[in-house]
Amino acid sequence: MRSVVAVVLGAVLAGGFAAPAMAGEAAMDAPIRDMEAMVVAGVQPGPGLWKVISDEGHVLWVLGTVDPLPLDMQWRSAEVEAAIAQSDEVLWEPGFAVHSDIGFFSGLALLPSALRIRRNPDGRTLDDVLPPDLHARWLEQKERYLGWEMSVERWRPMFAADKLNKAALKEHGLGESVAVGQLQAMFKAEGIKPTLVNVRADVEEPRELVRAYNRTAVNDVACMEGTLQQLEAGMPRLVARANAWATGDIDTLRSLPAPSVDRACLGAVFESEFAKSRGYGDVGERVRTLWIDEAERALGANAVTFALLPMDEVLAADGMLAGLVARGYRLLSPADAAPGEEEVDGEEDATGAASVKPRPLG
Q1: Distance between CA 70 and CA 172 in Å, rounded?
Q2: 105, 199, 224, 245: which has the fewest C-beta neighbours closer than 10 Å?
Q3: What's the CA gap between 360 and 55, in Å, rounded?
Q4: Backbone phi, then psi, for 119, in 5-degree steps?
Q5: How many CB atoms lie within 10 A of CB 66?
Q6: Is residue 102 very low, low, confident or very high in pLDDT (cuts 50, 70, 90)?
Q7: Which helix (H) or strand (E) holds 287?
Q8: At residue 246, does pLDDT exceed 50?
């Protein structure tokens, strides 16, 4: 689960924060009950790349991303390195960004008041705002992963759930964005500065934004409920999903969509009156449209482009890649082609050999 804290506090910092695009709803399979699931370690290849092709023969290579990933994994992908080396542009993972031009030191001055966003209004505790049975479950998981830390009892449910989830991930050998550093090194080595694909919100008065949020009622109990369900199951689904990405097991990734807790926690922010009144309520659809438009622009402008996209958007029948297919672009799965392979798109190639036609993903 990406940090909900950053979504809310991003407005008071000098730069900005990009929250991930919210993928479409996907049905959850029956939970995995293997409590002894082990996180993979060592050198792993990760998944292959999807290939989008324009009528002009321009190519968009797409790496599907997953969070969390195994902390002890060493990700090495010659295929990704080759694709980046060929690319004229890199599209970063799409999201929502909050920006303010108040400057670094002004942001630091605002930080104490901004951090009060985490607290329940009127001095209430989690015992006051959660149903009794849910609070009892929270206390059980809190004791396991956070010990007797008391300050978190005054936090809003989604902030407390976020802190609990991060501690649990670490204990289970999982972490956020462990491949990001390697990707950034690859981009730097090729002299490429990634293009950000964000729906951007500019905030002129961050102090007032903080005050407004502090006055806002946010229905984030579902975020706490989903987080506790995930932890009570021992997180075998997250382990299996992380392992599948590390080993390039696409079939398993198809069967394990992102946990619904991610959508519940982001929804607590974006579906609140606070967000809707500021024009953020439809951010998921706006991010989707923006990414498809940017991908289409890049396909027209560049011979080769590399992009990062949440794996659920890659695999979903109504995901962002499917949106490109709907606009007439061809799509090859990782099994169909890899960087450096000669493209074959007719009934016969130049030597008379039968071609393999692209197979759209569903």
Answers
A1: 9
A2: 105
A3: 15
A4: -85, 150
A5: 21
A6: very low
A7: helix 283-301
A8: yes
Residues 6+ apart with CB under 8 A from 287: 21, 22, 94, 95, 96, 197, 198, 199
**Which amino acid would we find at residue 310?**
P
Which residue matches tokens 């008065």?
205
Query: The tokens of 51 are what?
Result: 């290939």
Residue 191 has which token pair?
A: 């002299």
Count the neighbouring beta carbons within 10 Å of the beta carbon of residue 98.
25
Tokens of residue 313, six digits: 């958007």
Give the pLDDT confidence of 251-297 residue by residue, as tens digits: 999 998 877 676 677 776 676 666 666 666 677 888 999 999 999 99
* Inter-CA distances, 185 with 61, 96, 179, 279, Å: 18, 24, 10, 36
Phi, psi (5° rounding) for residue 329? -85, 150
Judge whether 324 and 293 are in contact, CB under 8 Å.
no
SS3 call for 196: coil
What is the per-residue DSSP string for 305-316?
EEEEEEHHHHHS
**Cβ atoms within 10 Å, residue 112:** 8
Instruction: Say how many CA atoms lie within 13 Å of 2 toward its Cβ.
Output: 21
Structure tokens, 239: 């382990």
H/E stretch holding 108: helix 104-115
Phi, psi of 47 (to 5 degrees): -80, 165
- Read off the tokens for 10: 């991003």
Retrieve residue 235's tokens: 């997180």
